[in-house]
Design a protein that fits this description.
Layout: E1 7-12, E2 20-23, E3 29-32, E4 36-39, H1 45-57, E5 66-72, E6 77-82, E7 88-91, E8 96-97, H2 98-104, E9 112-120, E10 140-145, E11 159-160, E12 165-170, E13 173-178, E14 184-187, H3 194-200, E15 214-219, E16 222-226, E17 239-242
């Protein structure tokens, strides 16, 4: 696929005066002799060859043979963040399997939660810079469970496209503090209850009161203190505090 910023080499056989190296503008256009402006962003090399051949064949040349190659990719960049060993921008050629990309990035960090969020820009003008998670709702967003992916997985959602921003999510955690035997940070699991979370932290000390535990949870960009039931579900980043007993 051809996109803004790419440098393409156009060769018209037996017509050396028409051979050109051109850079595609940010609007996706370039100008070619005899034809004028051509819009190419989003076209494949084969499609562009056919367009130029048809236009040159329409009153200018007899049976022209046109060969196009991309000499420099500038739009084929993706942006990889999060729990990989070498986050950053990577140049890809066409769609690329997500496991190929993460391998090029040195593999996953130990803290990886083995899930990825892919943000795919809706506008070609957004393809040359990372898209933040705050901008995700304005673009296409794809969630991938990396535990279910192998290099032979062929579903389209496992392939990265130019301009994608990929976030390898860190393992979700929760915190237990106060009167428990093993206060600390623990790996979060789906459907984990408050009672189970306190049990993972060794249970309450003889001075602790599980039933009076509270949670500090971030909601709507602010921290709120919640008094839960023991059967309530723990959410990622919850801070569970077991206070001292009154007696």
């Amino acid at each position: 696929m051809i996109g803004p910023g790419d440098v393409i080499s156009i060769q018209v056989w037996d017509h050396g005066d028409l051979n050109r190296n051109v850079e595609v503008s940010q609007e996706g256009d370039f100008t070619f002799p005899l034809i004028g402006k051509i819009h190419t962003s989003g076209l494949s090399v084969f499609e562009l060859e056919k367009i130029i051949t048809d236009k040159l064949n329409s009153g200018y040349l007899i049976s022209p043979q046109v060969t196009i190659t991309i000499s420099e990719f500038k739009n084929q960049e993706v942006f990889l963040f999060g729990a990989v060993k070498k986050p950053g921008s990577y140049v890809i050629k066409g769609k690329t399997h997500i496991l190929k990309l993460t391998t090029d990035a040195g593999g996953f960090e130990d803290e990886s939660g083995m899930s990825a969020t892919v943000i795919r820009p809706k506008s070609p003008l957004l393809k040359n810079k990372p898209i933040t998670l705050e901008q995700a709702k304005e673009n296409e967003m794809i969630t991938i469970d990396l535990n279910q992916v192998t290099i032979s997985s062929t579903d389209d959602k496992f392939y990265i496209l130019p301009g994608d921003s990929i976030y390898i999510n860190k393992m979700a955690r929760f915190f237990v503090t106060g009167e428990v035997k093993k206060p600390g940070i623990y790996n979060w699991e789906k459907d984990l209850t408050i009672r189970e979370a306190i049990s993972i932290a060794g249970g309450a000390t003889p001075r602790g009161s599980e039933e009076r535990a509270w949670i500090v949870r971030r909601q709507d960009n602010e921290e709120k203190q919640i008094t839960p039931d023991m059967g309530d579900i723990v959410l990622p980043d919850d801070i569970i505090t077991v206070p001292k007993s009154y007696f």
